[in-house]
Amino acid sequence: MTIATALEALSTFLGDRLSRSKSDLAAHGQSESYFLPTPPDAVAWPETTEDVTEIMRICNEHGCPVTPWGAGTSLEGHALAVRGGLSLDFSRMNALLEIHPEDLDAVVQPGLTREELNRDLRATGLFFPVDPGANASLGGMAATRASGTTTVRYGTMADNVLGLQIVLADGRVIRTGTRARKSASGYDMTRLFVGSEGTLGIITELTLRLHGQPEAISAAICAFDEIGAAVDCVIATIQSGIKVARIEFVDAATAAAVNAYSAGSFAEKPHLLIEFHGSPQTVAEESQRLGELVDDMGGEGFRWSTKPEDRSALWEMRHTAYWAILASRKGARAVVTDLCVPISRLAEAVEETRADIAASPIPGPILGHMGDGNFHAILLIHDDAPDELAAAKALSHRMVERALRMGGTVTGEHGVGMGKLDYMQAEHGDAWALMGDIKQVLDPKGILNPGKLVPQL
Amino acid sequence: MTIATALEALSTFLGDRLSRSKSDLAAHGQSESYFLPTPPDAVAWPETTEDVTEIMRICNEHGCPVTPWGAGTSLEGHALAVRGGLSLDFSRMNALLEIHPEDLDAVVQPGLTREELNRDLRATGLFFPVDPGANASLGGMAATRASGTTTVRYGTMADNVLGLQIVLADGRVIRTGTRARKSASGYDMTRLFVGSEGTLGIITELTLRLHGQPEAISAAICAFDEIGAAVDCVIATIQSGIKVARIEFVDAATAAAVNAYSAGSFAEKPHLLIEFHGSPQTVAEESQRLGELVDDMGGEGFRWSTKPEDRSALWEMRHTAYWAILASRKGARAVVTDLCVPISRLAEAVEETRADIAASPIPGPILGHMGDGNFHAILLIHDDAPDELAAAKALSHRMVERALRMGGTVTGEHGVGMGKLDYMQAEHGDAWALMGDIKQVLDPKGILNPGKLVPQL
């Protein structure tokens, strides 16, 4: 009943698909965030559901922790094997298994990334819309209930996963959901596993909802003198029912960072970046409606275009923003926060956060998916200044308290992992204990991604 | 530890809000379906969450079954107290507690019906879109994961419940979800309870997502010579991305029944009834696109209109359909089936079902929400002809098998209740046992709506 005996049995079963090399352990002990490196005891590369089944049987028998690894893009330490044991790397289970164009769905393995999927879908006229920014694995995106820039129009992973194949802690394989577009048949097991962060079972196959590539796309950009005016414009857009596909906010510091990073010429003011998807007439009509609203609300320089080259320049601003922000402070590392509140509290939440950061010793540009009430401050810290990590954590802590005070959630899209574990009781109260009860019944030995999401025994 | 001792304690607590009168028991022992009347031992009318808490404490202590009762419109026997005990009638917990127009949400008690909510919302410019036909209670709709005519555009109850207040079996009160529009914070407890049919906890409050009343609505109707052509037209509509808000099918027998019932003059052919929601330009554009598609696919008499009076005539056909069908066979009762398949299999599923009914001794008009792949046969039987119930059950059984064979679900929207319990193993395999495990941990004494949804101990 030890990790060592499990690894012996796993080594016999997996051969060279189990590694204990220093470089493999180190690669799977890193995260994109501020958590300390925590290498697993071994890394396994399953190639089939049957491999995962046998791995789970062995690990369950010996009580060896198993932590799934997708593309390693999590920001909350989800994929770190903090209790040791096995890192289960899905990079070899990355096939697009089936496309059903007539049903607008596809069946994929968990290691496939969203960019790979969309590349493979290009000729079909369909696409998978959920876009968290990073080129994450689809299994990881489901496990963390990812969302992102297009959620305001297409929903989160909870809305775009139709069904799952799951290997349970004891190796049993179950299927959740069907390829029908809706069902009232029993507990919604698909949505129980989506967002469960690998703590209830291992995703080995996903059926995803696809959408038609829009006939036309228009994109628009505009600047505001003040953060508050930009946020008010987002709120008015959502409330007036203008059907944006994306409505992204970046602040003045982000615009400046992008200018410095990629020789841009954006006004160094808060911006909104907006996209519409639909027929040529619809996107023209909606773009014009938004233009009028922006004018009314004091926005400047509103222009919209359906030309791909104009759109690309605009989205480059959004997509390089993170790297530009990182580069804006030499040698800095990022602590990325993730707050989501009801739209009515958004302006207040952003303004309080801005003032709080301004009063702190560290810079923290703000950007986000304002149409969902969700934004991030990218807090930039120097490793050799220990006060700065403390300042970042304190700012993040106050953002979480702000979210809860305003009726929001401690994480809009990055998940719990380790980073938000301490806030689960405050957000969920007794419902958190219930999550622990459900975990206990599905994983009585506690081997599935221990140290995350549920109350720790 | 008996129902009798529980009722004694409940009587002390509730006074005249507990009834054992024959008429009250009979009223709560009926269903809209073919199940035998099964009166509970008593009916309670809670008025607050605290009432429900105390009721559950008493019932849990004494092992007394509790079955929630909303508006009694379930078609699968959900609200029948088949193991006796208490029927918990929510008609006095029917308040609209809060409207947040700026956040597009409302907080309601479970006994409020969807028509009452929409009446109260009228002046706000908002509405709650889920429309299962019946004027069901919102608590019941959440408990059964209801959907209906507008699901193709606005989703099911799973998509439109943001959060719940739940009283657990032991009387603990939890809250799930927040008023933020998305969250990645832990297991999706809201969606675990939505569709759990009162077997995991009692819903005492719901936060619902509202939508802006569309600026313009257009409605269209057209007829087809054959069922297959009508279904093909629905499939083409969905696949071409035309944004219908409703796309309903009725067959020739339904059109004939409506003509007879309300002196209509519909062609006695299969029809599609379609609605678009949006700006005046959008609904005009989409209606025209659909008109072209209908022409291409051999539809006849396509006309569309944005005039409320034209729309009302059209939707009268859909809304009176059930009663018209019932009246079309004198003295008949309905056995309502509920099948949902991937869109690509829809034509085949409808055609096989039609042929199967034609070869049976009973009539069974077909109608449904074809845009979701979901349809119903309304099987008409005479009580004094026992062969007919058997024939209806056999037809329903073959519809279920057909759904599973085609990758669909045994219930698109009516839920499991008692009617689909025998098919859960076939649809879910080992995942059904898991549902039982979750039930067991949340309701160890099995007092919450026993006899429904999960494996029976």
From TrEMBL, chains A, B:
Needs which cofactor? FAD
One biological process term from GO is: lactate catabolic process
Q: What class of enzyme is it?
A: oxidoreductase
State the UniProt keywords alphabetically.
FAD, Flavoprotein, Oxidoreductase, Transit peptide
Q: Which domain of life is it from?
A: Bacteria
Which Gene3D superfamilies does this chain map to?
A: 3.30.465.10, 3.30.70.2740, Vanillyl-alcohol Oxidase, Chain A, domain 4
| GO molecular function list | D-lactate dehydrogenase (cytochrome) activity; D-lactate dehydrogenase (NAD+) activity; FAD binding
Ranges of residues in domain FAD-binding PCMH-type: 35-213
**The protein's Enzyme Commission number:** 1.1.2.4
Alphabetized PANTHER family for the sequence: D-LACTATE DEHYDROGENASE, D-LACTATE DEHYDROGENASE, MITOCHONDRIAL-RELATED
Q: Which family does it belong to?
A: Belongs to the FAD-binding oxidoreductase/transferase type 4 family.
Protein name (database record): D-lactate dehydrogenase (cytochrome)
**Annotated source species:** Aliiruegeria lutimaris
Higher taxonomy = Bacteria, Pseudomonadati, Pseudomonadota, Alphaproteobacteria, Rhodobacterales
